[in-house]
Amino acid sequence: MGAAGHPGAIVLFGSGENADVGREALRWLRASGRRPRHVAVLETPAGFEPNAEDVAARWGRFLAQQAESEGAAFTQIAARARGTPHSPDAPDVVRPLLGADLFVLGAGSPTYAARQLRGSLAWEHVRAGHVLGASLFLASAAAIAAGTRALPVYEIYKVGEDLHWTDGLALLELYGLRLAVVTHWDNTDGGAGLDTSRCFMGEERFARLRALLPADVSVLGIAEHTALALEPARGEADVLGRGCVTLLRDGNARTWETGDRLALRELGAFALPRADAVPSDVRGRIEAARSADEARRPPREVDEIVAARAKARAARDWQTADRLRAEIEERGWTVEDTASGTRLLARR
């Protein structure tokens, strides 16, 4: 069978997702022709923490406050732990993932995220939704977990376990890319006395870790306040932010700086997924959820007015903002300005 068509984008953050590089990623997504309309924020990577809800909500609030996501619906998914009422296998918990066009996963533990999501209903929805056009923002722990192998950061750096890798979620293997993603590549938290680069491992220890990887798995290092934005449908990726991206492959190192564009085949044996990558029943559920979601959403021309109003409000042009509010309401929608952004409610 042929390729699956036009999958969504994937943005891998080295850090700084709640700062300038996060805003740049939204602008990049918009420039690629995608404007988020239903954003699903998963709590899973921090699901072991008592404040998992707050950890996920911080990034969700940041994204909701940006002009590029004005008018989007945000849903937080409490898929925290298997065997609990908040399980990533519970249909009622993960059902909102079916209609989302942007999945967001952030801080926490890479190994915990991989363990909870691998083979889960939640990950099935995310993976299938992505192949069918939904994008992913993966920061920090989630970016590490998405690789073929995941770095056990806490287990090694904090607990002192022997050097090892665990199985990741292998998201990038959809495209033939066998990578171990390592965020915080240029970290300097240890100061002059302790090398904390390579996600707190240090260069010497990371060299030994690299030797433990299968020969066909390359390392993709992403600097802090940097992101690699992959556009699989074009076979290209862009380096965003203010740092660099490093590929360790076949004994060689290659680096791309901010503003560089690379072909995804430079990262490995890139290919688009097959058309049968999503089972027909899963495809049907996603398409039905998206249709129902779209029926509840304002038309795109209203979204454009909402975005223009957000710019007017940011410029403190209240007269224009009030005029645009009236125009939105004339089209049948009520505007609510909240701490997390603008909500639109259909007027009955």
Write up what this structure looks like.
By secondary structure, the protein is an alpha/beta fold. The chain folds into 2 domains: 284 residues, Class I glutamine amidotransferase (GATase) domain (Rossmann fold), CATH 3.40.50; 49 residues. It has 12 helices and 16 strands. The strands form 4 sheets. An 8-stranded mixed sheet has the order 3-2-4-5-1-10-11-14, with helices on both faces. Strands 8-9-12-13 form a 4-stranded mixed sheet. The chain has a two-stranded antiparallel sheet with strand order 6-7. A hairpin with a 2-residue loop joins strand 15 and strand 16. Helix 11 runs antiparallel to helix 12. The radius of gyration is 20 Å and the shape is globular. The model has no long low-confidence stretch (mean pLDDT 91).
